[in-house]
Amino acid sequence: MSSIEVFLPFLLAIWDVLRLQRSLDLHQEEKPDSSVYQSVQATLRTYMLKPRTRYLLPIFMVSYGCYLTQGLWISSNSTFICPIALDLPRDVPLMQIGALVLEFCLAVIAYETSPKSDGRGLSGRRCVIATYGALDMSIYLTGLTTTIPALEFIWSHKNPFPPTPASATKVAFLLVWSGRWTYRRIQQALGEKDPIRGSRQFLVLVLLCTALFPAWRKQSYIHFHPIDMLMYDASIHHNKYLEVVGNTNSLTETVSRYKQRYHRNPPPGFDVWFDYAKNRSVLIVDEFDQIYEDLLPFQAIPPSVLRRLTWEMVSNPWNEISGITIRNGEAKVQENVLPTHRWMLEGVAVLINSFARYLPDMDLAFNLNDESRVAVPHEQAQGLRTLALAKDQNGSGPFSTNRSAGWLPIPEHEYHETVFRESSWRNSFDMYGSVSCPPTSLARRSPRIASRSHLCRDCLAPHSLGQFLANWTDAADVCHQPDMAHLHGFYLSPAAFKASHNLMPVFSQSKPHGYNDILYPSAWNYMDKVVYNPTPPSGTPGNEDYNPGHPDPPFSQKNNTLFWRGATSEGVSSESNVWRGMTRQRLVHMANNLTSHPHDRVTILLPDLADHSKYKYQTLPGPTVKEIGLNTDIAIVDFIARCGGKDCDDQKAEFNLVKPSDFQAHWSYKFLFDLDGAGFSGRFLPFLQSHSLPFKTALFREWYDSRLTAWLHFVPQDVRLHGVWSTLAYFAGLNGTMWGRDIRWQAHEKEGEMIAEHGREWASKVLRKEDMECYFFRLLLEWGRLTDDARDELGFVV
Ligand SMILES: *[C@@H]1O[C@H](CO)[C@@H](O)[C@H](O)[C@H]1NC(C)=O
Ligand SMILES: *[C@@H]1O[C@H](CO)[C@@H](O)[C@H](O)[C@H]1NC(C)=O
Ligand SMILES: *[C@@H]1O[C@H](CO)[C@@H](O)[C@H](O)[C@H]1NC(C)=O
Ligand SMILES: *[C@@H]1O[C@H](CO)[C@@H](O)[C@H](O)[C@H]1NC(C)=O
Ligand SMILES: *[C@@H]1O[C@H](CO)[C@@H](O)[C@H](O)[C@H]1NC(C)=O
Ligand SMILES: *[C@@H]1O[C@H](CO)[C@@H](O)[C@H](O)[C@H]1NC(C)=O
Ligand SMILES: *[C@@H]1O[C@H](CO)[C@@H](O)[C@H](O)[C@H]1NC(C)=O
Ligand SMILES: *[C@@H]1O[C@H](CO)[C@@H](O)[C@H](O)[C@H]1NC(C)=O
């Protein structure tokens, strides 16, 4: 029920007053010796019962109570940008008022025109009774449709975030119940019958009180900080992970673990791969679930068809997909690659050539865009999976020797067929983003979330602990997060998006949950497009030759500031206002442009001023975050990219553009934010390698996602960004004033440094170039088996 519809009963009551109610002529014998109680009763009778407006107050109480209940859902605002400067259209409230009036008219008309059984049209007494019917109905319906979801909500959201205003629970229920009770008493006094008898009313009251109990008990203080708990969980999770990844020197053991995990024999050449991996001191040799999951559905497609699909994709330049050919142990970029993307494929070829001599002949189709390409609808994907799982691959033969004949050369004349559809510049969530979700999931079931300005709690609850992201893997799952449609540039309006619902074997650098692209380690990092390369100061301080350089000091000596620089490249905003939902823009807005407007208030978990061992979610005016000492340096560089028309001007007015800075300047800050662009963020690996602490939010996931543990190697942030301030407060500490009082909170320096150093150390073990080579090598052995005509007879046995 939308916000103001709950006033429908009240409107009906007014109409009822005007049309039907009459003041009563109460014959009361004045008794001079009446007690106080009796005189109160008499006064009540005179003022409540007698006038024709007798029902207005109680019904108003019910409506207003229901209205307050809605505070439960909207008690936390989203970070969706509502720039005050830009004069937001106010059509939403107007539409609601329109809907209310319409409903009211319908209710009245429906009643007034309904044929009466005696055929005499409206006649006084019948009319009054029927109206009571309509009023009663609307009160019951309004009450039920708001209180039942409210109670369910209270029962299912017992944690302290988001804080629920007392007005939304206690006051609201008191109003609804006492309004309803008064209404009933007046009816009784007038001798009307009530469909619900008195004894049942009592029962309802008891039920209500029981149901409300958690709301009363809900504590506003918490006695542990969620981050402490999440860090503890993370180390347990990582230790469990270490047990399964298998750091062994025995090929036999690795093969048997492979069979256990994937229920088939390893591909031919596995022994060479293992040797290769061990030569490069690779730690992870068992866990390659990403490869398994990515390739599984293709097992349902015959090898010759896979080869044909690869050829089709690379033969039509419109697809923006280019090929790499591996023949006789050498990888070459195919001739027809777009010049702008040549460097990328050449990088991939360099990466492949580090192990290509061990590979059989094959062709590969690479996605040249950052955006992913293939989203197979749920039902179809399930079918493919089932089919694939039914095949068994327990063979032991080597790769066929006649493989090169199976791959067609690029045609002389351009090939024009394609399964991809141009889907750029429009919302892609329903069409591609959520198609992989089960039909019963929130993302496919619910109508689009009505309000972008409020936080969707059902969307974040499954992966959150209070305000903090608790499970990085679950947070990638869009199936419970329909609000994502308005929170990321890739869904809102991707810049270069040619997508397909058909399963196509295309290799991409990153993908959001639900896409079927095959992930491979990006050449961006392999070819050092961005690199962690701090330089020490040189020369003598004070002298002319002094160069401060870009050192990477120990964590404790860094600037206590959250830092980000970047471009508005997440998606295209052209006359559509969609930039207001994009993650990058929202981050910049919340760091620089919070005003004291109510929508800009932030909810932040702070220690109690007196007792620092307990915490409470406080809702503060936007500018206060700076006053309590949270520092950010977050800005868009140079110009507004990927915008059109009015959206360019709006963003220019909203954002302060800065000059680009040296990438190596990052290391002087303690906290580095990492966000997706049009696809994955190439900076994350350098961030991890540094002594700084990366905060990361991402829709796009890369090949190494399962290797990292959130809260142990980096600090995860929800795409909604609603926990950024609380997280920063925890790690950076507070030193400032709030409500005119000094507020000090020690920074969790030790914890911050621990995550920064753990991430750095782990990245130097499992995210090296050698690890990229090994991942890719293994991926291509599996791809080689998939595309071999003798697929089922292939395999490696010790
Ligand atoms: C293939 O091997 C796996 C594990 O090694 C086993 O679970 C499966 O039953 C085997 N399939 C056949 C058909 O032998
Ligand atoms: C591993 O190293 C050994 C010794 O250096 C070498 O003989 C072997 O060829 C290497 N294996 C691979 C797959 O590179
Ligand atoms: C390779 O040879 C096998 C057996 O002769 C044959 O079945 C298969 O189709 C051939 N593959 C290709 C790609 O020509
Ligand atoms: C996240 O949730 C999944 C189940 O949904 C679980 O398997 C995994 O261990 C959880 N991850 C962490 C870090 O707790
Ligand atoms: C920390 O960084 C901020 C923002 O970049 C800058 O204004 C400030 O001067 C720096 N503080 C120190 C101590 O360098
Ligand atoms: C959310 O924003 C609205 C105005 O847009 C404001 O009235 C309301 O108080 C805000 N809620 C919170 C919890 O700050
Ligand atoms: C947003 O903040 C930036 C940096 O403080 C400022 O330059 C810009 O004018 C602000 N925009 C608005 C609309 O206030
Ligand atoms: C807090 O800020 C004040 C002035 O801004 C400064 O003098 C003081 O050293 C700071 N305290 C801490 C613990 O950082």
Automatic annotation (TrEMBL):
Any GO MF annotation of the entry? transferase activity
Question: Is the keyword Metal-binding in the record?
Answer: no
Keywords on this record?
Answer: Signal, Transferase
- So which residues are the signal peptide here? 1-19
The text of the family note is: Belongs to the glycosyltransferase 90 family.
PANTHER family to which the protein is assigned, alphabetical: KDEL LYS-ASP-GLU-LEU CONTAINING - RELATED, PROTEIN O-GLUCOSYLTRANSFERASE 1
Q: Where is this region: Disordered?
A: 535-554
Per the database record, which ranges form the Glycosyl transferase CAP10 domain? 468-783
Record's protein name: Glycosyl transferase CAP10 domain-containing protein
Source species, please? Cladophialophora chaetospira
